[in-house]
Amino acid sequence: MTDVAGHLLIFTLCGVVLFVIPLVIGRWIRPARPSAAKDDIYECGEPTIGSSFIQFDLRFYVVALLFIVFDVELVFFFPWAQVFGSAIHLADTSISADAANHLTSTLFPEIHSPATSDQHSAISTTSLHPRAALALGWMSFVDVIIFFAVLLVGFAYLWKRGDLDWVRADELKSIANPSHR
Amino acid sequence: MSQPDAAMISSVTSAAGKVIPELVLLGTVCINFLVGPFLVTPSGRALPGLRHRWGGIAIAAICTALYLWWTGSTEVVTTGPFRVDNIVWYVRGVMLIAALLLVLVNWSQIEDGKAAESHACLLAITAGVNLVALANDLTTLFLALELISIPTYLFLFLPRKDAATQEAGVKYFLLSVFSSAIMLYGFSLIYGMAGTTDLPAIQTALANSNQTPVLAILGMVFVVAGLAFRLTAVPFHFYAPDVFQGSAASGAALLSFVPKLAGFIALIRLLEPVVDAAPGLLLADVMLPMLWWLSVITMFVGNFLGILQNDLRRMLAYSGVAHVGYMLVGLNVGHHTTSVPDGIEALLFYLAVYGLMTIGAFAVLIAAERDNKPLETLDQLAGLHRVRPGLALMLMVFMFSLAGMPPTAGFLAKLNLFFAAWAQGDVSNRWLALFMVINAAMGSWYYLRVVGAMYLREPLDEHHGSHAPAPIIASVACTAMVITLFFVPTWLWTMVQTVRSS
């Protein structure tokens, strides 16, 4: 416990000191000649026209949110692609034993983990049977189809509800006959 | 061919077969979301009476799941992403029946145009709770807990659109996300310690490590903090009264039971490997005193603040906090004892009974609503026995049960917990039992105040409220079960007892 606390203390101290030192050095050696031009906006900014405190259209936010949702879902495809690719490759009977072993250990990394290595040490030299690999590949394919189908349900839902329309249908109606507003 | 690989793969390929009741529920969720928007106009209006159909579909889905649960195999499986044992069997049964009651409670609380989404959320939450019990892996556990949280935000937000509901929804959303982050941080530390997310493998790693499991202790503290938010254990309770007050009564009914059920099951699942591992003794030395204090503080704060409340839903929120304190007693004494009755068994019994009485109480409050406006203060219940004698009688049963008085199941549930804590024998646990008795006495003050308002005061007006059948059916069913379980507790108790035998 004291060991961990000591490490944590040293780490924190180093972090603070290394952060402060450059600031102090800069303070000592830089010349101090302030001018109006130095306070101007540069590189990433433009001088603003009017006040920057305006109301932002909420619809940008809705569209951005929907985009983020589907964008994040895409992240889940990457680990899936890793498993699917390895499994299909393993199902190929013509690959070498070394390659098969390597692929097996990427598919089942826990076999090499320290927690289980003493019980399963013999396994790491054996690769997965091609037929089992093919079954794994097909199952992961079906899994991703189901995942995607559920995603499409959400997509259909918000499309039908009109969340993707820039001008909502009920607003269109009230624009057509303003008396209902 | 290496056998463990084959076993691993077959455990993954056969995983879908273990969650068939949940797949039925989630399939219905998809149908609701696909068909729902086609039956409403673009401005969100629907034909009057559409909510009855969506409610019927939800009930049909839950009944199918109940049938599959009852006829499904009870074979114990401990490897793979899902673990099937008697706790799963019990939690499934309790949650599906609670879901039936909640559908009835929600029936008249939701507009026709939003019924599809609301009932879909309820079904997703139900599936989530079952998956929490099934989870055999930190990843599965986290996903299942999120499957409860995310539909809950929607469920709280959908019924009404006033400022109070929105505030409640946003408050719950932000704090729930915060608690998930804390819990996830704890999970990451445990993963860092064990090198795996598989719960049995974590147990092995803990048992085999010969160092002080500092990371595991830190991780478990974070996980308990994250789950304590769901349980509304003090000091993570502060959002509960505001959210209960702001949301519709059906949302409050859901919040008062479902997150607590999920939180306790997750805690039982997570503490079991951690506390049982022998060299993890130090871990138990840290966790058990923490849970002890959590339990004591939760009881006292819940009851003290409950006494001060005049708003019915705030009062029930604090009552929920106090009951979590009682249930934590069961968790405390359940993990290092072989005494009879077992703490975990008493906790599981209490959970089921608590669900019946709290959902029943909210069902009565909904049935007594006037002009679709929720009851707020105690004064609005004044003289209820003159206007609606049946409702007053049922609410009295629930209040007696919450206070722990015979002849209700709440009495037996408290008695079980008390005996479990007392029979365990440690001085600290006997103190817990005594604190529980003191708190039960304190708590009866505010429960009996409700009964007093209903029976001893004159009604303020002759308003009869609505006579929508669904909440009345739910409250009658709850009353029947609360009283029946007092006279025939063995029905539930034999089910509970199978849990530890596996």
From TrEMBL, chain A:
Matching Pfam families: Oxidored_q4
EC number: 7.1.1.-
Cell location: Cell membrane; Membrane
Entry GO terms, CC: NADH dehydrogenase complex; plasma membrane
Segments crossing the lipid bilayer: 6-25, 60-81, 135-159
GO molecular function ontology, one term from the record: NADH dehydrogenase (quinone) (non-electrogenic) activity
Main enzyme class: translocase
Alphabetized UniProt keyword annotations: Cell membrane, Membrane, NAD, Quinone, Translocase, Transmembrane, Transmembrane helix, Transport, Ubiquinone
Chief location bin: membrane
Membrane topology label: Multi-pass membrane protein
Catalysed reaction equations from the record: a quinone + NADH + 5 H(+)(in) = a quinol + NAD(+) + 4 H(+)(out)
Family label: Belongs to the complex I subunit 3 family.
Subunit and partners: NDH-1 is composed of 14 different subunits. Subunits NuoA, H, J, K, L, M, N constitute the membrane sector of the complex.
Protein function: NDH-1 shuttles electrons from NADH, via FMN and iron-sulfur (Fe-S) centers, to quinones in the respiratory chain. The immediate electron acceptor for the enzyme in this species is believed to be ubiquinone. Couples the redox reaction to proton translocation (for every two electrons transferred, four hydrogen ions are translocated across the cytoplasmic membrane), and thus conserves the redox energy in a proton gradient.
Protein name, entry field: NADH-quinone oxidoreductase subunit A
Organism: Planctopirus hydrillae
TrEMBL record, chain B:
GO biological process: ATP synthesis coupled electron transport
GO cellular component, one term: endomembrane system
One MF term in the entry's GO annotations: NADH dehydrogenase (quinone) (non-electrogenic) activity
Domain of life: Bacteria
Keyword set, alphabetical order: Cell membrane, Membrane, NAD, Quinone, Translocase, Transmembrane, Transmembrane helix, Transport, Ubiquinone
Reactions mediated catalytically: a quinone + NADH + 5 H(+)(in) = a quinol + NAD(+) + 4 H(+)(out)
Domain NADH:quinone oxidoreductase/Mrp antiporter transmembrane, chain residue ranges per copy: 135-442
Annotated EC: 7.1.1.-
Transmembrane parts of this sequence: 20-40, 52-70, 90-107, 119-135, 141-158, 170-194, 214-240, 252-271, 291-308, 315-335, 347-368, 389-411, 431-448, 469-493
Cell compartment(s), UniProt: Cell membrane; Endomembrane system; Membrane
Record's bilayer topology term: Multi-pass membrane protein
Keyword field contains Metal-binding: no
Subunit structure: NDH-1 is composed of 14 different subunits. Subunits NuoA, H, J, K, L, M, N constitute the membrane sector of the complex.
Matching HAMAP family: NDH1_NuoN_1
Family in the record: Belongs to the complex I subunit 2 family.
Function field: NDH-1 shuttles electrons from NADH, via FMN and iron-sulfur (Fe-S) centers, to quinones in the respiratory chain. The immediate electron acceptor for the enzyme in this species is believed to be ubiquinone. Couples the redox reaction to proton translocation (for every two electrons transferred, four hydrogen ions are translocated across the cytoplasmic membrane), and thus conserves the redox energy in a proton gradient.
Protein name, per record: NADH-quinone oxidoreductase subunit N
Encoding gene (name): nuoN
